[in-house]
Model the fold of this input.
Amino acid sequence: SAMSSENYAMLKRPDEFFVVQKAHGRPRFVEDVAREMLRATVNTYGELADTDFVLASVRSFESIHKHDAYAEGAGTLGELRAQILHGSTPTQSTSLESWLR
Done:
């Protein structure tokens, strides 16, 4: 799915123009998309424990470059809540490997 605009299965020509115009009006880098995914998770799932782990991974399949753009963000919900809700700077983030141990 796209983060710059909604996805649609089928569009008529005037609607297609609107969707493309909207997507170009709010472009996002992959790192912006990863941050937005983490923010939405923190805001949507407040009932989850601070010790639960979240991993947001985004790959943009580039058409004009010879490489794809990739970004990810991860940590426990406690770490992410501190960053997103309170603006604290993390000293370190829990990795998936260390969380699974």
